[in-house]
UniProtKB/TrEMBL annotation, chains A, B:
Record's protein name: Arginine biosynthesis bifunctional protein ArgJ
The entry's keywords: Acyltransferase, Amino-acid biosynthesis, Arginine biosynthesis, Autocatalytic cleavage, Cytoplasm, Multifunctional enzyme, Transferase
Site (Involved in the stabilization of negative charge on the oxyanion by the formation of the oxyanion hole): 110-111
Residue numbers annotated as active site: 180
UniProt enzyme class: transferase
Site (Cleavage): 179-180
Species this chain originates from: Streptomyces crystallinus
Listed Gene3D superfamilies: ArgJ beta chain, C-terminal domain, L-amino peptidase D-ALA esterase/amidase
Length: 385, 385
């Protein structure tokens, strides 16, 4: 159901020929209203792709009527030509969707950095996509934005008379600065842009922003939330924010589950930190430790690598008060060895690490990561991506 | 020649039975004077091994008469028992070396984190090592501190009447906070502890501290510099500091050349930064980017991954002024594609990346790193280390 689960939206996904293998590579999502409110969050990487620079400007207006997304090329580090190509894409979309303004067309791209897009294929592709727009097109749109994703990712939550739906892509270069990868969320709730913006920022802060598959921040991260108002229902803020968060959490979890080369999904929970910021710093340091990621791949409960990662942070803690559990077994107590590590069962894909800083009363923070595998190395060394 | 190249030093390396495979695992280095001046730098990881905590105290006195080093166990995260074991090791060394004080015995350990050392083997081993002390024992000492190192690492520089020699171990968990791995340097120059300290800190700051094989900071990093004064020569500071730096640089380069699973040594040079700190931050960010490390392994000049790594830093730069060369080919100019990437020849082990920030006039900074390979994953997932 994806982005067309909410009333008021149509979508399409087609093969425009941007990818040399002929797979679908161009998606179009249109908000048919009556409202066209929107919010967006983007990568905090200072090297930003042309479509990110463009869409940041579009979102300042608080209105989006259409989103064009392509796989097969990131249009990042492509200079003035890249920005002109994004502009031309928005202009073309406005043209094929009668009555729209290019200034309300967001653009998102994903693929190899440093090459320009084949505009001679992308622009005709937009005409084809517009002709195929459908209230059942959400699934095809989700498929068209895949790169190294092995499955397409969609999620839908329906509450009293209104719906939040969404699609996501992302399998590598998957570590958020603010958000990561490409995500489009839609809702038929009748809400204005400032409310959408608040709900989206709150949701991404604790979902996409706490996914760290490989420590590499993208130049193209984009998460958009579009509201059509077509349900004619205006939900209360808390209920709406919870629904957005649920969809974001579901999509973020799907991203980790399909990360390049991964054999394990690692749930890192940091408890009893002095502050939320400390907990996030510690969780992210653990998530990015290559030696630990290798050990998890080898089903080795190597808690010493967890401690060596915690030790590189500036978080408040005393080394001799740290505790670590792996899959519920407290293998490290008071900074030293605890329960027998042979008790840890690591056969399953999900591995749970709990780091107890014993330093305060902050709410627990969860960071999701993946293991480091020979398949990851192969996927990112055998060809350019 | 190693640590016994300088006059006034004896050393030994033996198999004490700490390693289950029977390989050499215990080294002893003794300064026979007449002077016993010393300096040391240690890991800035806040989770520090017991021998680091002990040796930091010893070095505050500015005098070291002997260094005990063991492989086969890091004695890190071992609680009060671990510290008692280090203390007992120093006491035993003082006992077997008549007339020495335990307070002048430095201890260094390397191996798996979180397990205590077999003291019933280590203490008798010290007696055996003391009996084998020799002015030709430097090579055996260097061999005894190996863990996953495939070769032992030594370096010697001789100037007018005096010498600086050294040995090093380190192949994984190889990213410095201040220094990394275990290193013992010796000199027969007649210098006091403050001069040694200054020369050692200056040397490590631009050598060991700019090696980043896998982004993982150790709990046991130790670099010691011992002076015997036996040459009866007091060199000028600049000449001595240059010799220390040369030995450190040589050993650091040997560490990168033998890093776990690596197939490439990556020399990352950051030029035209606004400050040295900016250059180091950018170089380290590039060095730690897993996607780039995979690309280099695949001999793919994927400069987009260099830019995405630079973009995550806080260094001064404008994205559209960045330039990147790989093995001398400027594949990225002004933040966009430059010379043809097919011109880049990456067949050899050494790969040179130049990142031009076009932001200032700071001196170039060089960071050494390795690629990320399936062999690295295997070596760090197939068994505990």
């Amino acid at each position: 159901m994806s982005v067309t689960a909410a009333k008021g939206f149509t979508a399409a996904g087609i093969a425009a020929g941007i990818k040399e293998n002929g797979n679908p590579d161009l998606a179009l999502v249109v908000n048919n209203g009556p409202r066209r409110a929107a919010a967006g969050v983007f990568t905090s990487n200072r090297v930003k792709a042309a479509p990110v620079l463009w869409s940041e400007q579009v979102l300042k207006g608080g209105a989006v009527t259409a989103v064009v997304l392509n796989s097969g090329g990131a249009n990042a580090c492509t200079g003035p030509q890249g920005f002109q190509d994004t502009h031309a894409t928005a202009e073309k979309a406005a043209e094929v969707l009668d009555g729209h303004s290019a200034g309300e067309v967001a653009v998102a791209s994903t693929g190899l950095i440093g090459v320009t897009l084949p505009m001679d294929k992308l622009l005709p592709g937009l005409e084809k996509a517009a002709a195929e727009l459908s209230a059942h097109g959400g699934e095809k749109a989700a498929i068209a934005i895949k790169t190294t994703d092995t499955v397409h990712k969609t999620s839908v939550v329906t509450r009293g008379g209104w719906t939040v739906g969404g699609m996501a892509k992302g399998a590598g270069m998957l570590a958020p600065g603010l958000a990561t990868m490409l995500v489009v969320l839609t809702t038929d709730a009748d809400l204005d842009a400032p409310v959408l913006d608040r709900a989206l920022r709150e949701a991404t802060r604790t979902t996409f922003d706490r996914v760290d598959s490989d420590g590499c921040m993208s130049t193209n991260d984009t998460v958009l939330l579009l509201a059509s108002g077509a349900s004619e229902v205006t939900p209360g803020y808390a209920e709406f924010a919870e629904a957005v968060r649920t969809v974001c959490d579901d999509l973020a979890r799907q991203l980790i589950g399909d990360a390049e080369g991964a054999s394990k999904d690692i749930r890192i929970e940091v408890v009893n930190a002095a502050s939320e910021a400390d907990a996030v710093e510690v969780g992210r340091s653990i998530a990015r430790n290559n030696l630990l990621k290798c050990a998890i791949h080898g089903e080795d409960p190597n808690w010493g690598r967890v401690l060596s990662a915690i030790g590189t942070t500036g978080a408040a803690f005393e080394p001799d008060r740290l505790n670590v559990a792996i899959n519920g077994v407290w293998v490290c107590r008071n900074g030293s060895f605890g329960e027998d590590r042979d008790l840890v069962d690591m056969r399953y894909r999900e591995v749970r690490i709990t780091a107890d800083l014993a330093a305060g009363t902050a709410e627990p923070v969860v960071i999701w990561a993946n293991d480091l595998t020979a398949d990851y190395v192969h996927e990112n060394s055998a060809y350019s991506s």
